[in-house]
Amino acid sequence: PSSPPPPPPAPPMGAPEPPEGQRLIISEYCEGSSANKYIEIYNAGDVAVDFGADHRWKLATVYNAPHPTNNGRWWHHFMAIGEEWPGTTLAPGEVFVVAKQGASAAIMAHADAVMASFPNGNDVIALVYGTHRRPEDHTVVDAVGNRTLAGPWGVAGVTDATAEHTLVRKAFVASGNGGNWTVSAGTDRHNSEWMVFPRNTFDYVGSHPHLFSPSPPPAPPPSFSPPPPPCTPVRVDIAPDYWYYETDWSIKVLATGETMAKEENSESWAGCLPDGTYRFEINDDWGDGVLGDGVPLDGFELAVGPEVIESDTNFGHQLVRDFTIPLPACTDVFVEFIQDPWPYETSWSVSRDPGSVVFAGANQNDGTSCLEDGDYVLVVQDSYGDGVSLGAVSLRIASEVATSATNFGYTYTFRFTLPWEPSAGPLPPDPEDLEPIIFHDDFTSVSASASQWQHLNPVVYGVQVREAGMYASTGSGVAIRRAAAMPTAAVAGGAYTIEARYLPVYDRLTDDDALVMLCTLPDLHDRPGTKNSSHLRFSQAGCVKFLMHDVFSLTLARIFGETEASLEPSCSPNVNGNTFHITVRANSVTMANDVGCGTLTLATDIGSRAEPVYLYLGGDEDYGRWLEWHYVTVRAGSSGNGVVIFEDYFGDPAASLEQWLVSPQQADLHRFIAPGTLKLRGQRKVVADEDVWTSDFHVTAAVSTHHLVRPDDDHFAVFVCQTTASSLQSSFWTYAAQSGCVRFDAYGDHRSLRMRALPPTGSYSAERSCASTADVVLSLDVTAEAMTWYNDAGCPPLTVPNPLGSGPYRVGLGVHEPQGIWAWVHSFSVTTNTAYPGMPPAPPRPPPPSPSPPPAPPLPEGSCNVPFLNPGGQQLNCGVTVTGDTTFAPNNYYNLAGEHFYRVVQSETKVVLFTACADDAFDQYLRLWRGCPSDGGVHLVANDDSYCDSHSQGIHYSLQPTLQYTLQAGVEYFLQVEGYYHFEGYYVVDMYCPNDAPFPPPPSLPPTPPPEPPASPPSPAPPPPQPPGFCGVAELDPGGQALTCSTPVTGSTVGAPRNFFQNSGEHFYRIYAEVPEGSTLAVAVATCGDGSSYDTFLHLWEGCPGFGGVRARFNDDASQCGYLLSRIRNVVLQPGVDYYVQVEGFSGSEGTYTLSLECPSPSPPPLPPSS
Fold first, then answer.
1. Where are the beta strands (DSSP E) in 363-494?
2. What is the pLDDT of residues 113-150, one digit of tens each?
3. Angle at Cα 364 formed by Cα 360 and Cα 367, nearest 5°?
4. Residues 890-915: tens digit of each pLDDT
5. How far is CA 403 from CA 392, 394, 415, in A?
6. Ramachandran region of residue 172, left (φ > 0), alpha (ψ -120 to 50) or beta?
């Protein structure tokens, strides 16, 4: 008998490959000026490629490679050519050119397709073949750029050739590089696959291949040196706060007092000064400096040449800095790391020896600075105590490595002198330079921590030590996915179990949701969550979801099938954690728990699907809290004790990131926390059980903030006390001053951080502020004379006198976290240098202020290189409306959302107003820049939410922003339109110039007829003529009354409209007070007196409320008026500005009032001369 036929060949494994004969390459790539960008694709094969018939040919991009969360494996944009440009076919020998919208005519003459958004020189663009952006689902055919290294990249020996150059593929290249950019780019013009041409070379676009003649030899350098510049550039850059009129500055010649430059009203300046010595002086009338918003410039900067030599925010009434031009010569010094898996444990600084910090860093990030001659010390600290154990840190001076270290313990110190003597070679560290440890806790042992602290008991409410690691998520509708697919129930022996434990937010005022999900959908984690739209908490095709919903003192359990849901029993949550117990069978699932919610069962075939099924951990925490997961295990069988298929106890963040997929869109919503965390909630305090017997020591606390939480705030406090202080005996603390203790506060909310100090008696110090990140290291340096409080987030250091004497001391740590939030502390240390006689005192190590970009010079139109500039050719001007859609637009600045930009230039100085109130499709955000954002522009002002009038209920608080700003004549500004957080969508933005024409009245607010005037007092004289501009707020000047310096006004808010703040009836009054041109007038407004019968609340507005006005001041209860009445004092009126007073009641209160405007008495006439 004949042999049976051979079995059919096995199906191909791995990523799909292009069909036989289809060979496409990137034949040309151009990044020129402005919109002059294109990519050319050449068919080097012998068959035509029909993109419309085969959608697996795609263009893929990675913006700002390497992306920090995807390790170069994922693409931001993954675009099918045939879907984007239908009907496209590329014959052998032909080219397909894709150009950026708005490119020059020389490019567009050859363009086959146009893209609105196009990669830049530090972005990777690739030609791929496949079905999905996952690595296993596509093949990289050809690419420009390296996904694992930061660009721009060199080509053929030309530095940064992918930016501002044209690259043309050499004629011999007939196949793609497969993503191997290193080989393709080469190191010189001989071994590279590319020819490199200068910017805006368009001679070769539209055809391929080309033959090139050898390059001519470079021109010899000129035989002369250019003359030195006659002066040195100097700039003063100020990010004005709301009280811009308080601040002025000057630069004078120190010897003669001659004024070289000066400005008022917080104006910035850039100029050029000859060699000499100068004095810079900045003054603030109020005494609080320049309180900016922290991004990108907070306060002011003084720069000489490229170097910022002075910057500050809350500098009080005055700051003076002397400087000399030219600046002294310097040597380049580099601190460089080979990172280990725990970079967050490491911080470093380079300081004068002795002296203050010159430059510093954290998270094993490199740093460099040009240092003047002198003595310096490098200090590297590791909170875990194993140094850079699987990596290294080195100090490089110019081109020579002076020292390096790996496993150095907690601290590594290296002293060096500039100028550096290379012959001396690297010096070993002095063992006596290592800082002795007085106290240290990394919270990896409950018993060890309990023995080191007072008030730290693991079972006490409000205090926990988490020995193990954890995974945490925040935000609405977010998830991570296990990388590998789940087995079927049959493969696992008929069933498998999932056990997952999380920590509910107990005793909270809002709720949270924890989800374990099994889905055939492979990208559920890759979809951005939207605020108040929890798309994970409902039935969904292809998914079975297991939910525990925690609200107040209840936990509710439920299973969601693809179309139906189980019952929802309730039980009491476990303060130490709730656990899912899930069993998956071929035709059903069951869910039990350890908190008494019973067992739920649902019929489903999710355990026997033929397509892959993926495991997700999801969360819904739209108030910004972190939802903690402690472990996940998957075991074969139904007993829960079978063979382990998968488990993660989150003990190694690097290992967890290999097992779970986290979307780049949600990068800052997920965290894997290493083992060792002290958790505190409420208003708790712990005290180190160790006396500090020195007056020279250093305290560090590594903490995590809730950088997205609203409306609550983070509040951390470090206490330094005399050992006899009675407050040490309590586990609670208050905001009042405590005898024998100095408290140092670090507090803030939503990406902000503020620092202050409170002595044993008296009031708070001035604040220091900066933008915050999720992880912050708080530091305190203590000497017998002073205490310096600082951090690694960039807040300026705060120094106060030491009122406690020479010690001994006790140190403590406190938090105030309301609303059921846990605060996280990862390590706490106290170290000193004074245990070694003869050693100089350790210098304070405050980090330098955050650098800010220099101001942008005026740019010719079209030269600003930001994506989506003036989209669709729209031009923004007075009375113009622009529209657009930010969905999938690039994100480069601030929020995690797509952005559009509009260039605005006015021929004369004027007040303008930008508003997005005309449409509320999504939660929008407006920002205004002076200068091009991508080329040194300065971020001026931003707004998220404002009062809009486009709704049926009239003026109300809206998610749409409004900005009002004075644009200077001839200065180039850019308006940035984006979404709050990561929201994207359609927008409408209007630009008004109120002084050009009256502000258009809103259609939803017809004029309100005035009420009948009161019988007493008699009606005042008619108000003086109003300044130009329309104010449509309801109940304005009720009864025709005018608020003037001589005449109070009266009224009753009972039944009046409620639109702003306190949900009570409200009246508005324009302030009629004459302010002479070039002067100011200080006044007060008050409801003091017998004519006010209820708990009043006053607000002062600059500009019309609800029509671009800004609330500047407010007051509820004023001590000068007695309980419940209000007074706003020291209101400085500016000429030409409209001011309005809003009268309402606290928390819904309404009643009668008398409102007065208190003005200064006129000066008496001069006395006659004495005889």
1. 367-371, 374-382, 392-397, 400-405, 411-418, 437-441, 453-454, 463-466, 470-473, 475-482
2. 888 888 888 888 989 888 776 667 788 899 998 877 87
3. 40
4. 888 888 888 999 999 998 888 888 88
5. 11, 6, 10
6. alpha
